[in-house]
Amino acid sequence: MVSALSKSNHQELRIFFEPKSVAIVGASRTPGKIGNYILRNNLKLGYSGPIPHRLAIGPR
Q1: Is the pTM of this model over 0.85?
Q2: Are 56 and 27 in contact (CB under 8 A)?
Q3: Spatial CA neighbour of 59 closest among 36, 34, 33, 27
């Protein structure tokens, strides 16, 4: 029973730490803005999944 519970927890955490895509609220193409910093750091730190344009949400 413990191993089944551990496997379930591992799968749940994997979904959180290995997302298929991400939404970055406040994304910006302007260097120096916090949204740009967050986007660049996600890529710099190894996020290799897609960041669809429609999920990079910035102010209009």
Answers
A1: no
A2: yes
A3: 27
